[in-house]
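User: My collaborator sent over this chain with a note saying "see what the structure looks like." That's all I know about it. Can you take a look?
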Amino acid sequence: MAKINQLEFLSSYFDDSKITGSLNEFILDVGILVLISFLLSIIYQKFGNSLSNRKKFAANFVLLSLITMMIISVIRSSLALSLGLVGALSIIRFRSAIKEPEELAYIFLAVSLGLAFGAGQREVAIVFFVLISLVIILRSLIAKKFNFLNLKTDEVLYLNIKADAKIDLKKINNILDQYCSFIDLKRVDEKDNQAEFLFLIKLNSLDKLVGMKDALLSLDKKIDLTLLNDEGLFN
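Assistant: Without extra context I'll predict from the sequence alone. Here is the result:
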């Protein structure tokens, strides 16, 4: 009897008649979610600190939120679908690793917005979005004023170097010291006899940039250099 009562309780909890709203409300939720997700992408582009191309990454927020809302709207009316989704997600492996913690935080926020709207919690989603947005904006403003939490300025560039794993990192560092007014090694990756280094650098002139490039290429003609600014690839 206890098991039957538990099943009846779960069935009533996922009863479609209790949670399915009108078509007008659904369309309204979709519209608000699109607007909020778009605002989230703007906030990420303006106040984010990720080293990746933030504009391209932020373009996925609206789609991610809508997909999440669609999934929750479909499965919330069926206990079997809900349990099946849990099982499916438990075996998914993502081959593209998220290397920046900030990117993961924004992905979770976009997914959370979709979850909330899909579950019919429009007011909760809006309130939390406003609060989180205020925290992000205030943190960025305070960081700029007191020069902490954010080391990046308009002059900082991101230098990505791909080369043979046997290349001497000290020689790379010495070259950057010679041509850059500021350097900071952010990440080192090694895989399949290939090494990848990510630096934050400051260059005072175009001549310094050309000299740095020639000096690095003198170490290895096959070295791959990518220079990015705050907006993305620096051509």
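A starting point for your reply to your collaborator: The chain has ten helices and five strands.
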